[in-house]
Amino acid sequence: MPYDSYLHIFLPDELNQENTEQTLTEGKQGVERNHEIQGDPSRLQSVSEKNSNGICTDNFNLSNSGSNPLPTENSTLPSPENSSSSFFPLTSMTPLMPVTPVSESSGIVPQLQNIVSTVNLACKLDLKKIALHAKNAEYNPKRFAAVIMRIREPRTTALIFSSGKMVCTGAKSEELSRLAARKFARVVQKLGFPARFLDFKIQNMVGSCDVRFPIRLESLVLTHQQFSSYEPELFPGLIYRMVKPRIVLLIFVSGKVVLTGAKERSEIYEAFENIYPILKSFKKA
Amino acid sequence: MICPECGLVVGDRVIDVGSEWRTFSNDKATKDPSRVGDSQNPLLSDGDLTTMIGKGTGAASFDEFGNSKYQNRRTMSSSDRAMMNAFKEITTMADRINLPRNIVDRTNNLFKQVYEQKSLKGRANDAIASACLYIACRQEGVPRTFKEICAVSRISKKEIGRCFKLILKALETSVDLITTGDFMSRFCSNLGLPKQVQMAATHIARKAVELDLVPGRSPISVAAAAIYMASQASAEKRTQKEIGDIAGVADVTIRQSYRLIYPRAPDLFPADFKFDTPVDKLPQL
């Protein structure tokens, strides 16, 4: 290993403290990164990019694999205060790191079901012209003041307003949403408008998953009263409003969970990791 | 009022602040100078210490054209005109379903709290009033279904449900979860079922929930199915349509819940139940 020679520099005790913290954050991101990789194959490219950037941090891993016992790392992994904002890359050093047992992380990855994004085409549009010339476009000015256009490839729907702003819904991933928005912008461009692609922003992400065991919603609402709302007359699921990543979860008796309100994929994953131990404690029978 | 023996103060403020009774001794019923003012409601309106000019007695009371005397009372308590209106509406709604005074008082208090907080100012007062009525019934331990409140209010179930959640948030209170037993006595007496059948239905519903035969079903639907089973096993049979009409549940919903509890029917009935139709002859839908 080419990095072995650097070990002696990083052994001093003063650095151990920050090494510990860094490894712990890395450890958490390692789990998250695994989620990312599983969830979206299109991200592999970005993963390898990150690998090339942070070579020196691997040494922290090496120096600590001996000094840090397994429990320290595992006990802090599920804690929410480790922010996921700074991603430290991991290379092939990863297998040497203590592997987190499955009981700590849920092993279940929420699947993204819907992404809502907005983009500004930066030019005034003539909706009637768009509705007349474009395929798969509907426009009822009396009902709604926008053209509703659909494309087949990433199966998505766009609401195109006369101001030039557009809302794109139905995509299953961030990249697909961006791609679909670009396709819609292209359609508008081909109709003769000077369309641009400004301020693409993902506004909402919806994910769902299955914890595979039935849940006692009545007990959950009793203990988490300030976050939960369970009214069987109004809706069969429990509505859990999580504070730390501000995510709303719909939890059903069957064990299916829907997470919504996220701006980032990581928020969905974090929310699910937060709720999973709670749901496990309210498993039925 | 003080007890003469121990000196315990039994009642202070023994001045009757109820509304004035009418005296029939005089011929002129309008003028009765021994009585003053309307019933005091200091808890709800702000004090209500306003006075108004009564009708003139003599000939010189601004009698133009012989008709109008001094201008009728101006708007008193204009600051709480809306609140008084809402109280009137609440009393009307409660009267339609014969709610006791304690629930109406609680509703008025809730409405006053919400109104003063102003966080739900934009919502229709009737919607807030209906939601307060719903919460008051729940808090008093005699919940009414949303549909029952809808029946006496002009507001839709959706809007009442929304206001309900907003009020719980605004007042930072919570309510207990509804159970099947809360509705048994009302539904059964509306259907004219004898006490035995009502007790049997309560037992069936409670057992069904304990044995988790109906996961995710609304307690109202389970209660309706239990009433159906109990009534069908007794001499007083009721059809699904009749029960659905009283409970506000669709008859297909009763059918679905009934299908879930039917297999365990022998276990659900109370031990001392007298079967008019034996368990194996219960209708199978």
What does this structure look like?
The complex is a heterodimer of chains A (285) and B (285). With 285 residues, chain A is of the alpha+beta class. Chain A has nine helices and ten strands. Chain A has helices at residues 7-10, 13-39, 44-53, 58-67, 70-76, 127-133, 174-190, 217-223, 265-281, and strands at 111-120, 137-138, 146-151, 156-161, 165-171, 198-210, 228-229, 238-242, 247-251, 256-262. In chain A, α2 crosses α4 (58-67). The longest helix of chain A has 27 residues, at 13-39. Helix content of chain B is 47%, strand content 0%. Chain B is mainly alpha-helical. Chain B is elongated, with a radius of gyration of 26 Å. Chain B is built from eleven helices and no strands. The A-B interface holds A 214, 218, 221-222, 225, 229-234, 236, 252-254, 284-285 and B 145-146, 161, 164-165, 168, 174, 177-178, 212, 215-220.
Distance between the termini of chain A: 51 Å
Count of DSSP-assigned helices of chain B: 11
Strand content of chain A: 15-25%
The helix content of chain A, as a percent range, equals: 25-40%
Main pleated-sheet profile of chain B: none
CATH third-tier fold name of one domain in chain B: Cyclin A, domain 1
Order of helices and strands of chain B: HHHHHHHHHHH
Radius of gyration of chain B, taken over Cα atoms and rounded to an integer in Å: 26 Å
Q: Counting H and I runs of at least 4 residues, what is the number of helices of chain A? A: 9
Write down the Rg of chain A.
Answer: 23 Å
The CATH superfamily of one domain in chain A is known as TATA-Binding Protein
- The helix-and-strand class of chain B reads mainly alpha
The CATH top-level class label of one domain in chain B: Mainly Alpha
Biggest sheet strand order of chain A reads 2-3-4-5-1-6-10-9-8-7
Give the topology string of chain A: H per helix, E per strand: HHHHHEHEEEEHEHEEEEH
Shape of chain B: elongated
In CATH, the architecture of one domain in chain A is 2-Layer Sandwich
Show unreliable segments of chain A: 10-86
Estimated structural class of chain A: alpha+beta
Number of strands of chain B: 0
